[in-house]
Amino acid sequence: MTAKTARVPLGTLTGYGIGQLGAQIFRDTPAVLLPIFMTTILGVPAWLAGIAILIPKLWVILCDPLVGVWSDRLKPTRGRTPFLFWGALLTGLGFAALFVVTDYGSPWLAAGAVCLLFLLASTGFSVYSVPYLAVASELSADSHERTRILAYRMVATIGGVILGVGVAQPLVFALGGGPHGWHVMAFSFALVCLLSMALPAFALRRVPLLEGDAAPAKLLHQMKPVLANKPYLVLLATSFVQGIGQASGYTVIGFFYLYALGEVDLIPKFVLVMATGSMVSQPLFLWLSRNFGKVPVYWVASILWTLITISWFYVYAGSPVLFELPLLGRLTEQGALVLVRAFLIGITNTGFLLLSLSMLTDTVEYQRRRFGVANEGVFSGIWSAAEKLAFAMGPLVAGFVMSFYGFQSSNTGAVAQSAGAITGIKLLYSYIPAGTQVLSLIVFSRYRLDPSLIGEGARMEPAPAVEASEAGLHS
Question: Rounded to 5, what percent of the chain is helix, strand, coil?
Fold first, then answer.
């Protein structure tokens, strides 16, 4: 069996996929909690907090492609696993450092210190995330098999969202919302990041990756064929525009449930139900994409997600209690509607995110077949840089919108906000991400890629003793 014809074994799938658990925590938790930490604990104004988070992301625009070139050069002799190990270590340490100090004595000093720490942590994450994404394009030459690989990665993504979004903030508040709560959250989550992200470094040590001709030595030479890959550029622009709106919504998740709904305890329930929708829908999207094509299914999932997202603007606080359920506890009228939305968001979000990454691997395979060398690291580096920049612009957009609508910062915890400030938060959670999704679909309408050029439909040889054990995902 070769990497081109064999189904990827379950051990490789899980070993690769588990790394996304910690990676997703680092991607989500600072995006959600740093604005809250800076504005309610460190006393940093919302607009300044947005800038402090943006600067490290501007750095990774350069850092990620450079890591991609570096990992491409070392791949023939060292593979990509050294990057995974050291990147995991640096990311875990950097995550903990972000929330260790809760009193800098000055909002400006606090903003500068957090900015520097986030820059260092983001550099460590670049060392990990770029080669990690590249591996998804190198485990199989078959288009649908790559979707299957990414489905396992998506399972870990869901776990990361549950912990990073659904558990982190409630944990801090459950421990009193003060320095102790932030410290416990920081060190425990840093450990999870370190362990889960380091596992692929060991699981993939002896796994063969697709090979190609030697990559050019210089970044500019490697960039030329990448910039000639129109399907990749269209997909890159689509993801970037989407990411700005999604990051704006991520930034205000805590504010949304605290002020717009008045039910912070609903966050873990929301994330749990959303994760359930995502989990149960993955086999469906694997089947749909194989039978109807990735592009049409991507369109449908994106449009449905947009419509659901718009509806978030119309929630309100203080609705009556409807009933109590086991595990979920007390549910208000608005809370029940939130959980319905959560399930639908989980389904549709999985659809367009899974297929977006799968189409990314298709554009890399297209490059490999055209030029003999795919420069997977460079592709992944540029993609990762654009994604991180978009998620940095989200807090910046959120900071200015919240300031414009009158949000009041504090260094003593959450304080009451005006109706105008709550309206700004609701816009950031609904119409703004929905609007960027519509714009991204206009860009995506230019995406064209011949299925015969990306390994679609190749006959796959089953890996021995693996198929029965995969029934949980492919039943």
Answer: 75, 0, 20
103-101-394 Cα angle (round to 5): 95
Residues in CB range of 301: below 8 A, 6 or more apart: 285, 347, 348, 349, 350, 351, 352, 355
As given in the structure block, the two tokens for residue 78 are 């060292």
- Structure tokens, 211: 């090979």
- pLDDT at position 97, please? 94
Nearest by Cα to 252 from 75, 395, 63, 93: 395
Length of the chain (residues): 475
Phi, psi of 332 (to 5 degrees): -85, 175
> Distance between CA atoms of 229 and 232, rounded to whole angstroms?
6
Give the chain's radius of gyration (CA, Å): 22
How far apart, in whole angstroms, are the C-alpha atoms of residue 363 and residue 384? 15
For the segment(s) 10-210+217-458, the CATH number from 1.20.1250.20, 3.40.30.10, 3.40.50.720, 3.40.50.2300 is: 1.20.1250.20
- pTM summary value: 0.73
DSSP state for residue 3 in the 8-state scheme: T
Q: Which residues pair with 331 in a beta bridge?
A: 323
Pairing of strands 329-332, 321-325: antiparallel
247: confidence class by pLDDT, cuts 50, 70, 90: confident
Distance separating alpha carbons of residues 458 and 454, to the nearest angstrom: 10
What pLDDT does 461 receive?
Answer: 43
Query: What mean pLDDT is predicted for residues 269-298?
Result: 89
Regarding predicted confidence, which is higher, 187 or 61?
Answer: 187
Q: 154 by DSSP, 3-state: which?
A: helix
Q: Which residues pair with 461 in a beta bridge?
A: 6
Name residue 325's beta-bridge partners. 329
Q: Which residues contact 442 (CB under 8 A, 6 or more apart)?
A: none
Phi and psi, residue 144, nearest 5°: -75, -30
DSSP state of 150: H
Q: How far apart are CA 373 and CA 214, in angstroms?
A: 7
287-327 pLDDT per residue, tens: 998 899 899 999 999 999 999 999 999 988 888 888 777 76
What is the residue-wise DSSP string for 82-105? HHHHHHHHHHHHHHHHHTT----S
